[in-house]
Amino acid sequence: MAGIGFGGGTGGKGGAGSEPPQAFARHAMIQEVRGYWEALRQGDTLPSRADIDPRGIKGALTGAFLIEHNTPGIGRLRIAGMNFTDFLGMDARGMPLSALFDPLAWPRLADALDQMVQRPAILDMQLEAEAGPGRPALLARMLLLPLRRDETRSAMSLGCLALPPLSAPPAGRMMIRHLRADPVLPSHLRAVPHARARLASFAESPAPEFRVKPSPAARPYLRLVDTDPDHP
After folding, report:
1. What confidence tens digit (pLDDT) does each residue in 94-148 have?
2. What residue ranges define each of the domains in the chain, with the CATH number in brackets?
3. Residues of the chain falling short of pLDDT 70
């Protein structure tokens, strides 16, 4: 992918609506990136950054992006499509992914990024930005897919930010309405529906139901999770 960026398109000119055709287009963009990533996998091996060719996701270039994980809980944008420019009102390259999110969402995003890199896992997020004068709330979807780490690079991931057309940056940053983290399945399980269903039912538990406790003995970005609501 050297020398090729995710430009592709100039963004939309309409309002931040959520009509069914727009929702379908956002879903199709996410599915295109997910399908391309799955097709690049060889057995149980994750794709690498060098495997990614923008021509393989030409229908999703406005939302496609690459982030680098140099620091636990942080993903820095190395390549970002025009959806980022439309949302932020500026070039997003070099910025942390958290720049799109309200500060209240940063801890949950950081935990999810760590989970994606360490497990590894696939992240699928339903996002919402608050309404502004004359503008409804903005609904969006973000997909993050882990890439194979090589000897010369930090961990990286491929993603897609699917937005409705924007005439102006939204009034606020994104909040996470729902976050799903699916473990990357080995090849012998990817075609087994009941195995996928069991993993999905586990991953769909909303994050707020869990109480997070710091672990003094662990590295700062590791957490112990208490799932017993009756435990003091």
Report:
1. 999 999 999 999 999 999 999 999 999 999 999 998 866 666 678 899 999 999 9
2. 20-191 (3.30.450.20)
3. 1-25, 131-136, 151-152, 187-232
- What type of residue sits at position 87? F
User: Looking at residue 134, what is its pLDDT?
Assistant: 63
pTM above 0.85, yes or no: no
Which of 68, 186, 74 lies closest to 119 in space, CA to CA? Answer: 186
Q: What one-character DSSP code corresponds to residue 168? A: S
The dihedral formed by the CA atoms of 185, 37, 120 and 151, expressed in degrees to the nearest 10: 130
Q: Which residues make beta-bridge pairs with 96?
A: 76
Alpha carbon distance 207, 20 (integer Å):
28
Rounded to whole angstroms, the Cα distance separating 172 from 46 reads 35
What does 139-153 look like in DSSP terms, one character per residue?
Answer: EEEEEEEE-B--TTS
With contact defined as beta carbons under 8 Å apart, do 114 and 136 qualify? no
Residue 205 pLDDT: 38
